[in-house]
Amino acid sequence: MGAAIQFFRGVDEPVVPDIRLTRSRDGRTGQALFVFDEPDALAPESMGDITGMFLVDEEGELVTREVKARFVNGKASALECTFTWKSTEDFDRFMRFAQRYADSHDLGFSGNKDDDQPEQDEA
């Protein structure tokens, strides 16, 4: 089983979000901001009210209720979701989901942005 993001249980959101992480200095707490541009969940034929974002993988699901719509000209055009963690264990769990999500969607994923070495292309 791969990993999926859902706004309606059982319905995978096909739009891949832009994800930005911020962490406290000690690394124990932080949050991930997900931005979905033109997600299917906002389509007029979608199933109704969005009550949360569900991050689903083989370990279970992570849930956040912090979901906001971004409007352009009075029309919802994007969803912004914030997932917050309050412990190192929660962060590790989130990162396992993120790796599975990247793998199942053929995304490049780097778990360590603190590396000072620039990536080099082989000639």
Automatic annotation (TrEMBL):
Self-association state and partner proteins as the record states: Part of the photosystem II complex.
Subcellular location: Cellular thylakoid membrane; Membrane
Pfam families noted in UniProt: Psb28 (PF03912)
Protein name: Photosystem II reaction center Psb28 protein
Annotated PANTHER family: PHOTOSYSTEM II REACTION CENTER PSB28 PROTEIN, CHLOROPLASTIC, PTHR34963
Cytoplasm is among the record's keywords: no
Membrane topology category: Peripheral membrane protein
BP terms from Gene Ontology: photosynthesis
GO CC terms in record: photosystem II oxygen evolving complex; plasma membrane-derived thylakoid membrane
Family statement drawn from the similarity comment of this UniProt entry: Belongs to the Psb28 family.
Protein's UniProt keywords contain Thylakoid: yes
Keywords: Membrane, Photosynthesis, Photosystem II, Thylakoid
HAMAP family attached to this UniProt entry: PSII_Psb28 (MF_01370)
